[in-house]
Amino acid sequence: MSEVLRHLILVFGVLIGALTIAAGLIWLDRGLLAAWQDRYGPNRVGPFGLIQVLADMVKIFTKQDWIPPFADRPVFVIAPALLVVTVLMSFAVVPFAPGIVVSDLNVGLLFFLAMTALGVYGIALGGWSSNNKYSLLGAIRAIAQMLSYEVFMGLSLMGVVILAGSFNLSKIVEAQKNLWFCIPQFPGLVIFVIAGIAETHRLPFDLPEAESELIAGFHSEYSGMKFGLFFVGEYLSITLISAMIVVFFFGGWLGPVLPPILWFVIKTFVFICGFILLRASLPRPRYDQLMSFAWKILLPLALLNLMVTGGIVLAVG
Amino acid sequence: MLSHLRTIWQILRHSFRRPETIQYPEQKPYLAPRFRGRIILSRDPDGEERCVACYLCAAACPVDCIALQATEDEHGRRYPAFFRINFSRCILCGFCEEACPTLAIQLTPDYEMCEYDRQNLVYEKEDLLISGPGKYPDYNFYRVAGLAIAGKDKGEAENESEPVDTHTLLP
Known about the structure:
The complex is a heterodimer.
Chain A: H1 2-36, H2 52-62, H3 73-90, H4 108-129, H5 133-164, H6 169-174, H7 186-199, H8 211-214, H9 224-249, H10 260-281, H11 287-316
Helix pairs in contact in A: 1-9, 1-10, 3-4, 3-9, 4-5, 5-7, 5-11, 7-9, 9-10
Chain B: H1 2-13, E1 39-41, H2 56-60, E2 66-72, E3 78-86, H3 95-99, E4 105-107, E5 122-123, H4 125-128, H5 141-144
Antiparallel strand pairs in B: 1-4, 2-3, 3-5
């Protein structure tokens, strides 16, 4: 009984925690962007504008939830939920601290990759069911981008798997007791970060949205909380990718003095801020540049990294 | 690639800059001395309306936000029967001030005229008229113009000589 209760608390804790962080990220995102553009950002609602998130929520919930008459209704409704659910599913395998993990799967890494791959459905179906040419263009871009970056996102992690000898995320973290994988797997880290940005379709790789070209890309036709769900999904996936970078390359919960969970949160937030910094500074590439960068540079690099790591491990071990 | 890293570094350094923002309601921005804001109608030093309803401001207005109707009082002075400025259209360009031959219409440095109701931005003559002469304290159009009105005949204006009698040969 207590085992069930513990699991339930864990599941809802992770769920509520992840959603709270995603909502808080809206504030953090705006605040940091403002700071880097020499502005104040939201500072009117509550202390430091912290209640801004709540105000935004109230606003978005009271907005008219309009479904265009030309849209494919059921798919249109289900698409944003699909995006959020797939991202939330990935949080099930994130080891926040020793023992604090919803499901300590032996194939946790594969589960994470599978769920991010499923995430493309939310966007593709959303863009397609909108029955709008800009949405469709955004969805096509999203599919092509996410599929291509999916390939070496997985490949870049294989080096980590070889070093750790396991697909289990907790075991991967424990394997970094002596040396964080960011040092022996530096190329893998770089590739994973780039692929991660592309996976979350954040700037500079926000081609599926590309508001200067495609209005809002795949979510042009969405309004109200459906639009909000797309945003929550985006912030959730930023959190997820940051957490995954920490787990795979920066020793997860490992760290001196402070409790493990705090270490995990601190490291994750550093990477979230890094994501926002990239958004503040880098311009969006052209679409063909994005694709050729993926297939001509990053994929060979990922394969090379995998080969060298495998060779060294084979020679040494 | 290197330039991208440099860009990121440059942006990161901005974390330690002071924001340029002026937090408006608490903190007022610096206004240039000739800042053009809300439009007023001034009076001459004698307290009469300066506006002679010549329509030049309405003609000069690029957004057609000025509407007025000319009329004349018993002394022969022209004045606007109504004078209406729609500030929801006004772009504060100041062309009306430049066009005004009697220095009646003037722009003030006031810019805080927000309203919840759009209709409240339509200012009537009572809203526009101020009690003083504005930027030109001594100017009185009828005292320098050659126009005859009650109490001031031709030739009685400032720096104006007596009208010449064109029917006589005497010097």
